[in-house]
Amino acid sequence: MLQEEEKDLQDQADETPETEAQDELQDQASEQEEETTTTDTSDDDDNTGGNTEEEEEEAKPVVLVKKKIEDEEESEDEEEEEEEDDVDRILEEAAAARTPHDDFDWKRSSKHGVTYSQEERADLTEKYDATLNSILENEIVAGKVTSISSGDVVLDINYKSDGLISLSEFRDMPEIKAGDLVEVYVEQQEDGRGQLVLSRRKAKLLRAWERIKDSYENGTVITGTVISKTKGGLIVDCGGLETFLPGSQIDIKPIIDYDAYVGKTMEFKVVKINEVIKNAVVSHKALIESDLAEQREAIIASLEKGQVLEGLVKNITDFGAFLDLGGVDGLLYITDISWGRINHPNEVLQLNQKINVVVLDFDENKKRISLGLKQLTPHPWEVLSQQIEEGSTVKGKIVNIEDYGAFLEIQPGVEGLIHVSEVSWSNQPINAREYFKLGQEYEAKVVTIDREERKMSLSIKQLAADPWDTIAEKYPVESRHTGEVKNLTPYGVFVELEKGIGGMIHISDLSWTKRYGHPSEFTKVGEKIDVMILDIDRENRKLSLGRKQLDENPWDTFENVFPVGSYHEATLVRRDDRGAILLLPYGLEAYAPLKHIRKEDNSLAEVDETLTVKVIEFNRDDKRIMVSHLRYLEDIRREADEQVKKADKDDRDRTRQAVKKQQSSIEKSTLGDLDVFSELKEMLNDNPEE
């Protein structure tokens, strides 16, 4: 009832609107402001000059309206305060009044029961609370499965209410049943509906992280299941928490196939954790290494030089192989794998192969063990057949090539040297790296053999007779033959007439007329070429060959065709800073110094330009011709000058003769005139007065 009365009073207070008079006054004020134009007033009469009576009359209604509005507002505030005081008074009176509800005796009961006193009730409550666990939120407690129904598991944690967890959180316990004890995580003692909120998944994660931290801090071993492969390693489920297992930490030997470990349950040690993101790195290799540490110490303590052990090839490199001797590694160097030459250990060994090896040396401090495989068999030289002796023929393959020759392997561990001088009867130099190829098979003759020093020299050329014994009969001087170009040098061409027989054509013997800067301008390797035998040096096994000697020497004729002072047309084919080469008729080349190829305009002649040249030198022995275009121009100018001089002389002679002829006729007439003048003079002398 008190609440209803209070509500009615409040409604009455809320329903009090503004008075109609206030609205009317405001409307009148608005109309007055629209109809009347007012001006600003000022307290300073000096500045405004005072208001007129008319203006004062017009401003009175506006002032009255404003005053009336202010009075109305004050009255409204007073009314509101009075209403609030009335409401407070009514509430105080209602609170002081007693009702039947307050007089009811709640200890009375209509049922037949025992009534407890306040002390008894407190004692019973205390005993009841003692039977319940005191739990806190965010902690792990043990719970007992009371029932499983509708996909949920009901758990009793000895609290005033049971907890409910989805059956999906018990996938790792497919045979869970009533009565089983499990650990759960208390999320909330009471949610919005007053229910206890538990989680088994969070309990598993927290316990898993505790075990991981314990393994990291104390080195304890944890168990996990590999669930998937990832970049660089594997993902391991350790009690519901995913951890990373690097590929290098799976085993002590390199692992290639990661998929083989997916689904396996293994033991691990935690080697790194991140508290912030709750992540960890585990290692299975650390467990193996710790187990092998004691074995390693025992193995090294029992090692002896010459001891034969069984090992497993765990890694192969370019320089050798690493073997697992049962907890300790040993190095089998490539030179100790086989008595013969091998390029890589994988030619003999394979990964995970078990072999017997002998201990060559070991260092207890550095834990290094040197192993040998070939030492288990006798050295091949010790069991080399006695039939291999000087003069015998052997067969093998090339296993090594050096600048001075190649090594022929007769059997693994037994090699002989074929020197470059024992390859061919020819005196032509041989490049061993170009002549031999690794793996090629050859037959050779044993030249020398030293079983104590384990050395052998071999020869290929001595398998055949020396062709130089009959060289003079087969290749006499001035005989003509066809050979194959084998090599080119700046000074000549090496030609092979037959295997083991060859000679050189000097660059000057390639052509009678043309000078070559390099033999490659004339021929190339592999071409067939006709030659003439010029000389035989049997002692040094050399033949002098010629190519131009196959043709008649044209220089006997050229001396008459190109005498000194003769003029010829020539084409410039090559020019350098010192001079130029010009091609004369019949393919003959001539040389002209640079200043001798200047033209009339003082410019130098260009390549492929045709000039008229004068032979200024002809050397038959050196087969050299020197020409000059400048001398030709000088000769032309000289002839032109001489012709001009001759013409001038002829003109002078003709003029002189004409003058003489004219003078002779003039002398006769002059003498006659002289006689007349003489007579006239005498006449004048005889008559001076006249």
Secondary structure: elements and pairs:
Blueprint: H1 2-15, H2 20-35, H3 45-48, H4 53-96, H5 100-103, H6 118-130, E1 140-149, E2 152-156, E3 163-166, E4 181-188, E5 197-199, H7 200-218, E6 222-230, E7 233-238, E8 241-246, E9 265-274, E10 279-283, H8 285-301, E11 308-316, E12 320-324, E13 329-333, E14 354-363, E15 368-372, E16 393-402, E17 405-411, E18 414-419, H9 432-435, E19 441-450, E20 455-459, H10 471-474, E21 480-489, E22 492-498, E23 501-506, E24 528-537, E25 542-546, H11 555-561, E26 567-575, E27 579-583, E28 589-593, E29 610-619, E30 624-628, H12 629-686
Parallel strand pairs: 13-15, 18-20, 23-25
Antiparallel strand pairs: 1-2, 1-4, 2-3, 4-5, 6-7, 6-9, 7-8, 9-10, 11-12, 11-14, 12-13, 14-15, 16-17, 16-19, 17-18, 19-20, 21-22, 21-24, 22-23, 24-25, 26-27, 26-29, 27-28, 29-30
